[in-house]
Design brief:
0% strand
Length: 323
């Protein structure tokens, strides 16, 4: 009888702990919806949650972050002008093409030198070359990647994204980059759209406009790269995830530029989009548990760091020389 009571007490205690964990997480989610929490702070909060209490809704995290990011990016389109976006896109197209193919080639060489599994190496290279987690998610079914290979690639990219979100604005200010230069640099050198927008939004409105436009133009390269990947890995059955949200982003820009009445409500939509981005970064950080970090391994992380360092320095030289 006493033993049964003890078991019930332990069970009730565990239930209370789980409920407390969920409550803390929900409070932090709502805190991210306030103007007091910036994107870097949200990411840091998520990382702390991941290491100390764990993500209580981890099974929903990937879908939630993907949807939130896409909706937030479309919302940011209401803060942009078509004419400025076209100009920014033209400025970044050469940088985009050279950096994508250069990164994929260099990544292949490093992967062979470090004897990294071919598919893991390719996913890390693709994520660095195009748009981080979105590229990995699009390419992985095309090359029939396994869950472990996808996890390692995502972990590598998200770790470096976390560093970039804090480091890039500080470096940009130290080097006195103007907003156009910083926006281009972010779009080329930072992997994930969420971190690109987070870093650029701290630097200025024009930096955000340039970074978002160039990054989304870069994301369109998912389609040809995925098609090429299916041929490279001889997988004709793989499905390609087309980033349809980019089309909605363009529609939002067009409405904001040409449709009467839209500019009046556009600032509110942009504020909501930036809030959604902040929450996205919190959820991404909360998903980077110790287990995920340990699963990355030294070789893929080194590959990611080398690729990221090379593309960052090359892009920095390019934007300071030509932009």
């Amino acid at each position: 009888m006493q033993e049964a009571t003890t078991i019930r007490q332990k069970t009730n205690f565990l239930d209370r702990q789980i409920s407390t964990r969920e409550l803390i997480f929900i409070i932090l989610v709502f805190l991210c919806l306030t103007p007091w929490i910036t994107p870097p702070v949200a990411l840091f909060m998520g990382l702390v949650v991941a290491q100390f209490i764990g993500h209580p809704f981890l099974h929903l995290n990937q879908k939630a972050t993907s949807l939130l990011l896409q909706v937030s990016v479309v919302g940011l389109g209401f803060g942009m002008n078509v004419h400025s976006a076209v100009k920014a896109g033209k400025e970044g197209i050469i940088f985009t093409i050279v950096s994508i193919f250069g990164t994929l080639i260099l990544g292949t060489i490093i992967g062979r030198l470090f004897k990294i599994d071919r598919k893991t190496s390719y996913l890390v290279s693709g994520g660095t070359a195009i748009c981080g987690g979105s590229a990995i998610a699009a390419i992985s079914p095309v090359i029939a990647a396994e869950e472990k290979q996808i996890s390692v690639a995502l972990g590598t990219v998200f770790i470096l994204n976390s560093v970039a979100l804090f480091a890039f604005p500080a470096i940009g200010h130290a080097l006195s980059l103007n907003e156009t230069q910083f926006g281009l640099w972010c779009a080329i050198a930072i992997h994930d759209t969420s971190s690109v927008v987070g870093a650029a939004s701290k630097y200025g409105h024009h930096a955000l406009e340039v970074a978002t436009t160039v990054k989304l133009a870069r994301a369109l390269w998912i389609i040809p790269v995925a098609l090429g990947s299916s041929l490279l890995f001889k997988n004709k059955a793989g499905r390609i995830k087309v980033p349809y949200f980019i089309g909605f982003f363009i529609v939002a820009m067009v409405l904001n530029t040409y449709m009467l009445g839209v500019p009046a409500i556009a600032p509110l939509v942009v504020i909501a989009a930036k809030t959604g981005l902040t929450l996205t970064l919190f959820l991404i950080g909360a998903g980077l548990s110790g287990k995920v970090l340990r699963s990355v391994g030294v070789a893929p992380l080194l590959q990611g760091i080398i690729l990221w360092t090379v593309i960052s320095l090359a892009a920095l030289w390019a934007v300071t020389t030509f932009a």
